[in-house]
Give the backbone structure.
Amino acid sequence: MTNEKPAQRRIDQFFSGPGGRADNWRDLVDAAKAWSKGGDRAKYDAALSALAVTEEFHGYPGLHLMTALKEAAAAGDAATSHALATRIAHALQTKSFRQHAGDWSTQEESNGDVPDLLPPTLGQSAARRPYFETLIVTGLPASNWQGLAAEWRKLRRPVDAFIYEPVIVGSLEDAFCAAMLNPNIAAVVINEGFGLRSRHDAPVLRAMTGAMGLNEESDASALRLAHILNRVRPELDLYLMSNRDVEQIAGSPEADVVRRVFYSIEDILELHLSILEGVQDRFDTPFFDNLKKYAQRPIGTFHALPIARGKSVFKSDWIRDMGEFYGLNLFLAESSATTGGLDSMLEPTGNIKKAQEKAARALGADRVFFVTNGTSTSNKMAVQALLAPGDIAIVDRNCHKSHHYGMVLAGAQPLYVEAFPMTEYSMYGAVPLKTIKQALLNAKADGRLDRVKMIDLTNCTFDGHIYNTRRVMEECLAIKPDLIFLWDEAWFGFARFSPFLRRRTAMGAANEIEAWMRDPKSVAAYEKQQAELGKNPSDEVLLKARLIPDPRQIRLRVYQTNSTHKSMSAIRQGSMLAVKDIEFHTVEAQFKEAVFTHASTSPNQQLIASLDVSRRQMELEGYGLVANAMEIAFAIRNAVNTNALISRYFRVLGADAMVPSEYRQSGFTDYLAAGTNWASALKSLNDDEFCLDPTRMTLVCGTAGYDGTQFKGLLASRYNIQVNKTSRNSVLIQSNINNSRSDVAHLVRVLAEISGEIDRGLAKGGANAKVDFDVRVNSLMKDVPDLPNFSHFHQSYRGDAGTKTNEGDIRSGFYSAYDAGGCEYLRLNDPEIDRRLKSGPDLVSANFVIPYPPGFPIMVPGQVITQETIDFMRKLDVKEIHGYDATEGLKLVKTEALARMGKPRAAAPKLKAAS
C-alpha cells in the first residue's frame, strides 16, 4: 500500500499481504544467491533480519527452520543459506509444506525423523488433510516456546481430519499482528499472563492501541484480546485458558465471543479436539455433503428430469461430448427431487436450512436466504415483501433496474434521490447523506413521513463508491426510527471478510449499531445532542448535524443482497439475501410469498451447492483471499500509474478523482499516495462519507483515443482480457479472489503493447496524426454530455403526492404502456420533440429507457422527459439501449391518455407470478 520500502519492515504494515511476503522471500533468495557467488553478505543479513520479524507470526517455516537460517548466516555458510532459503521459498510458493513433511526438515531430503515438526504421515495418507495454523498467546518466556510447540505437535493423530501448526506469541500487540498478517490462522488459544507490547517496531499500531485505551500492561486481559480479535476476524474460533474462576468467566456476557473456556491445568487433548471440531463446523457444507452422497447412490429416476444420472447424455451418439466436457458427477447430482437427502428451496427444513444458517453466521446476519436466479431476484423479493401499494421508498435513481421493477411489482412509490455526478467520466457516484436526510425532512414537513417505509441504496456502486453505512442508518433512524434499509451489495459480498471493509457493509454496520444500542452511553449521547439541538431545530441545523438516534426507539431493520457469484466461488446467478430485522416476524409470511413468487420450483442443485461451498471457503480462507485481491489491485494501480510509457495514455483513477473532497473529510487521497498506510486508510473508512473500494479500478482509456466500449472489445478480441463495465472514456477493472500476479503481468504487458502502438503510430503519422489523435481525445475527455437527473413524475401519476416530495405511482405508469392506443412514438431527432420541449404538451415516458453504459434508467414510466435527458441521449454513442427502439423512437404516453388518468378507470392488471 505504501511506496516507502523501509516501512514494510515494520510489523504493522498490514496491506503488504501474501504477495508481499512472497516478494520478501524472493529478495532473500536473490541476496543469498549473490552472496554464494562472492557478493555482498551484508545485503543478505539485512534481508534476513527484516524477514525474520514478520515470519515469527507464521507456522511455516517456523522457529526451527528460521533458527537454522540464522545459524547458517552466523557461520558464514553462504551455500547452505542459499539452499535452505530456496527450499523454503519454493515450499511457500507451492504450499507444499502443507502436505510434505520433508519441507519442514533442514536437510535436502527428509529422512522422516521430524517428530517435533510434522508427523511423517503428512502427505502420505490417502486423503488430503487441509492444513491451518493455531495462534497460541502465552505468558511463557520466548525461551520456552520451542518446547511448547513440541507439546502441541504431540497431540496430532492420524485420524484427525485436519492438521495444524502452532504459532506462538507473547503479547497482545503480537497477537493482533499475527491475526492480521497470517491468513492461515483458523483458531486462537488465549492463555492469561501475556504482555501488552510487541518486541518490535510498531508506531502505527501504538497509535491505534492508544486510541483504544490500551496503555498499561493491565489492559492486556484475555477477554480484551478476545474482543479485539473477534472484531477484526470474526470467523476465528477463540478459546480461553484460565487458571482462575472459569465458571464466572464462562457465565459472563463478555465471554460470548469465545467458543469455549478451559481451566488451564486440565488435559490439553480436549482443547486440541475442540480446535478440530471448530474448524470442522466451518468445513461442513450440509447441502453439498448430502449432494455428494446422493450422487453415489444407485437411484432410479421416474421424475421429469431426463438428464438426471446422465444416461440420456452418455448413451447418445449426438450429445455425448457435453457429458465428456462436464463430467459424470454433474449429471449424477442432478435431480428434481426434494427428498432422499436433498431439500426444498421453497420450504427448506433440512440441509438447505442448515446451509443457510451457516451462511447467516458467516455474514453476521440473523438469517440468510439462498437465491438461485441472481441478485436481481433477491432485490425484487425484498422490495415486494417489505413494501405495499402506496408505501414510499427513498431510492437511488441510479440503482440496478431490479429495484425499479420491484417498485412496480409492489405498487410502492419511489421517491428518487440523485447521486453526485462525475460528468467527466460519464458516471454517477453515490447519494450524499444530506440529500437523503432532506428527502426525509421534506416528507415529514408534508405530513407523509409515516408512509416512508424504506431507504434503498447501492453499496458499493458499480464504480466502487462505498457508503458510510453506519452513519447513513444512524442519521436516518434519528429522523424515523423504524425505517427499513435495503442495501444492494451485489458487488461487495467479499467485504465481510476484510476487517478494513467490513464496517462499511450493511451487516457490519448493523452489528455495530446493535452493540452501540446496548451500551448505556448511547442514551446519554442522544440526550446530550437533543439538549444542544433544542426543541424545534430547523432543517438547516438538522442537515448540518451528525444526528444521533434514540437507542430506545430504534427498530433495527436491515436487509443486504449480495451476488455471491460476483465475488466468491459460486456459480453464476448464485445470490444471498441477508436479514437483520427485529420485526422480521411481522413480514415473514409475505417474505415467504415473495419467495414463492420469484423462486423457481426447479432450482439448480449445483448452484445451491456452490453457495454452500463458497460460504465454507470464505469462512476458512476468505480473509487471505480478500487480502490478496486488494494487494493485486494495488499492484495494478502502481504498475499503470508509475510506468512511464503506459501512464502517457492510461491511468487508474485514485480516490481523489472518484470522490469529491467534501465527502473525504479525512483528507485521504489515494491508496498509493506517499506516506499512506493502513492507519490513514482506516481513518478514511471510519470517518469519510464515501470511500473507494480498492478492488475496483476505473482505467481511463479516453486519453488513449478509445471509448470504453471500443477498448473493452479490443481487450476481449485481441488479448483475451475480459472487463465488465464501461463508460464513455473508461473501463472498469476489478480484482477478485481468483486473480494472481500473473494476471497483473498480462494486463500490464497488454497496456504497454497498446501504448507502444499509439506511440509508434503518432511518430509515423506526423503532425496530422497528432492533430487527429488530439481531436479524438478531446471529444472523449472534454466534449462529454451532461448527466441528466430525474425530473419528476407527470402530475397524472402524482394524485396523492406531497408538495415537497417527488414520489410517483410508477406502477400505473408502467401499465400505461400496455394500452397501445394510448401511446405514441417519436424518433429521437424528430423536430416535434424540440417543439414540445419548448411549448408543450409534456413528453411522458411510457417505459424504462436504460443505456449501457451507464446502465441506469435515464427514463422511468411516468417520468416527464426534459431537455437534458434528450441532449444526453442524442450524444450517446452506445449501441445497447434497453427500452428504446431507434427505428420507432421514444415510446410516450399520449396527452389524451394522461388526461384520462384523473378519471375513474379500471384497476391495472396484476402481474402474474413467475412459474
